[in-house]
Amino acid sequence: MTAPPRIGVDLGGTKIEAVALAPDGEILLRRRLPTPAQDYDAILAAIAELVREIESEAGGAARVGVGTPGAISPATGLMKNSNTIVLNGKPLVRDLSRALGREVRIENDANCFALSEAVDGAGAGEAVVFGVILGTGVGGGIVVKGRILKGRNAVAGEWGHNPLPRMRPEEFPGPRCYCGRDGCIETFLCGGALAAAHEARTGENLSAPQIARRAETGDASARATLDVYRDRLARALAHVVNLLDPDAIVLGGGVSNVDALYDGLEALVASYAFTDSLATKIARNVHGDSGGVRGAAWLWPPD
């Protein structure tokens, strides 16, 4: 008997993307809609519309996985910690399952990214994979032997809301984070933080991609900004190595596309980690922006 198709949905802040995934990981169909970010019921309707559209083309009811910002609280079963605010406090699993008339699996989007890269990406074949998101925010996910490690409180991998390790005197107390604390890793390593650090050093108001392009052409001030960012990233990743000691760390998100970021990064992490040598592989993602939506589909294991 042929297994039903597998659909992954990535519920982003600006767009909702859905794909049909083949058993070998190939994306067969892809559809997108803008996210009605201020309207919970409209989000449910948009996801249902995308799923049904793909099912009509793929031919048959599918198993559906959804990657979301935030997580399902083990205590209440409701969404928490989402930067799409209307999701917080809502029974998203129940409501989507009702809307589609079947079980729906939901996971944090960083966990979905990590799962995608662990199944058939840069972390394939590794037992413990830590997936990193360096984008608008800073997230993380842990996959152990092909399974997402969610944790007792559903916050495993949320390294972005730990303090930046080994802070320099000039870094204290750190920027204020939306979580209400100062000096979170996210405030130092998100894309906006890279731009802010460059402006603080040089007075130039440039985006992260512009800084990267200037660094590639040999601009000394842009390279210096990336050096500061790389050092902060290395300190934060060394903290992960000391706590988790993963086989592979896979970088994703917009900042992960900066080639110069990887120059000497493993050596820097090794210099901060509590080890005589670093065997952990640190790699750029394979699946790019499709990591989250593919990982959502992989919430239903391979047939």
Tell me what you see in this structure.
By secondary structure, the protein is of the alpha/beta class. The protein folds into two domains: 6-112 and 290-297, Nucleotidyltransferase, domain 5; 125-285, ATPase, nucleotide binding domain (Nucleotidyltransferase, domain 5, 2-Layer Sandwich). Helices cover 35% and strands 20% of the residues. It contains nine helices and twelve strands. It has helices at 40-58, 92-100, 109-120, 185-189, 191-202, 208-216, 220-244, 265-272, 291-297; strands at 6-11, 15-21, 27-34, 63-68, 71-72, 79-80, 104-108, 128-134, 138-144, 147-148, 248-252, 281-284. It has a five-stranded mixed β-sheet with strand order 3-2-1-4-7. It has a five-stranded mixed β-sheet with strand order 10-9-8-11-12. Helix 1 packs across helix 2 (92-100) and helix 3 crosses helix 9. It is globular, with a radius of gyration of 20 Å. The relative contact order is 0.15.
